[in-house]
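Sharing a chain and its predicted structure for anyone who wants a worked example. Both blocks are below, sequence first, tokens second.
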Amino acid sequence: MGLDPQAIQDIVFPWLLVGGLIGARILYVLSYWQRDFAGQPLVEVLAIWKGGLVFYGGLIGATIAGTIGIRRKGLPLWATADCLAIGLALGHFFGRLACLLNGCCFGRACVLPWGIRFPADHATGGVWVHPSQLYEAALNLLLCGGLIVWQSRRPHGPGQLFALYLMAYSGIRSFTEYFRGDYGVQSAPTAGVFTPGQSTSVLIFAAGLAVWLLRRPRSGSTGPHVD
């Protein structure tokens, strides 16, 4: 994409890493406050070593911190966002594999042949469940490939690839949420209608659509350009 690899690495560490961790933790605490944190010592909010990160919070936090870092480095904002979107989809593939190994983000009960079973002392109680982590991992891998093909073949304005990622992933997340079984009782206003992930997906899709429309190539544009 014509960007300096070292400059991109400097954005990832520390801007995206730190911003992503902070955002992921904040959204987790807000989503599960009533269940996990109400009445607990405040230090529990900081105890990320016990688990508790939400991808969408990490995406939002990394976007905010990354924007600051990109501006400070003098990189083109939207072209850099496009570059990072492809790596984000690929990284999320590996992230969901890690969720499977860790036993988090597990699925609801499943009677299909490809159901999986965790040990009896797992939160699932040893019943067969959907491999929801693998569903999302596979779809993220397909999304990564699709973004690579799309950006190389379709004329687009800077930022549209990032927007496409946001819209596509929000659809993937909304779909895979139907197979999740790890939520339990929620305090979110949409509990009983949408999962927290689906509720956030609506907002992420709207943001992606807005960026897509705003970053369309100007009339007469013949191909990709950087600004």
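Comments welcome. The chain has a mean pLDDT of 89.
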